[in-house]
Design brief:
This protein is an alpha+beta fold. It has two domains: about 140 residues, CBS-domain (Roll), CATH 3.10.580.10; about 80 residues, Histidine-containing Protein, Chain: A (2-Layer Sandwich). The chain is about 35% helix and about 20% strand. It is built from eleven helices and seven strands. The strands form three sheets. A three-stranded mixed beta sheet has the order 5-6-7. The protein has a two-stranded antiparallel ribbon with strand order 1-2. Strands 3-4 form a two-stranded antiparallel ribbon. The radius of gyration is 25 Å and the shape is elongated.
Length: about 220
């Protein structure tokens, strides 16, 4: 089966800044390009870190409330340092958590969850920035149309991967939810068919109504 990888989903026209880029220039970059974060790269184009809106808002968070309704913010030392930073080098969250173009959607999603980030700079074998992938980019796999998903399950899962006669299995797809019904040569193939169908890009859920041929025969009146 062909799965879309990070290289298929990432944005390649990446807006980046240098370590000495100033606070207001970074804010202007975010506003002009309608983005929420920007990678910070060195002279070789290698990501050093990422400056996000959250990093920039530390400056607002650290200030006294003009209305006098709130007390002083309780910031950790690292957060206080970031609140007083004037350039990308001091503002960025580092080191940068990066992805590779050949990563699967699963790998990228797990990296984001593990490191609590919303996007990943993508680097090549030399460690140079070649793209950026966001949560929204990964979710694009769920925009695949139901007929496309059904065709892939019929062709790639049932016929090519399992060597089955697709006519023995009915595949229904509605809003990414797959229902498998019919008979399989033996029971050991059923969990494999379900697992492979779940791995197809765009599948939200799989309902299993498959039976083994021996079970089906046993339930047939003589």
């Amino acid at each position: 089966m062909l799965h879309r990888v990070v290289g298929d989903l990432m944005t390649t026209a990446v807006v980046s800044v240098r370590p000495d880029t100033g606070f207001k220039d970074i804010v202007q970059h975010l506003a002009e390009h309608d983005i929420t974060a920007v990678p910070v790269v060195d002279d070789q184009g290698r990501p050093l870190g990422v400056v996000s809106e959250a990093d920039l808002l530390r400056k607002q968070e650290s200030q006294a409330d003009p209305g006098g309704h709130l007390g002083a913010a309780h910031l950790l030392p690292a957060e206080r340092t970031k609140a007083h930073a004037l350039t990308a080098e001091g503002l960025m969250t580092s080191p940068a958590v990066t992805a590779r173009p050949q990563w699967s959607v699963v790998e990228a999603a797990r990296a984001m969850a593990h490191h609590h980030v919303k996007r990943l700079p993508v680097v090549d074998d030399a460690g140079q920035l070649v793209g950026i992938v966001s949560r929204g980019d990964l979710l694009r796999v769920f925009l695949r149309q139901d007929p496309t998903i059904r065709e892939e399950i019929m062709t790639e899962v049932l016929t090519r991967a399992l060597g089955l006669d697709p006519g023995a299995v009915t595949v229904q797809v509605a809003e990414g939810r797959v229902t498998l019904s019919g008979t399989m040569p033996h029971s050991g193939l059923i969990p494999i068919a379900v697992r492979l169908s779940e791995s197809v890009d765009g599948v939200v859920d799989v309902t299993n109504h498959l039976r083994a041929e021996t079970d089906a025969a046993a339930g047939t009146p003589r």
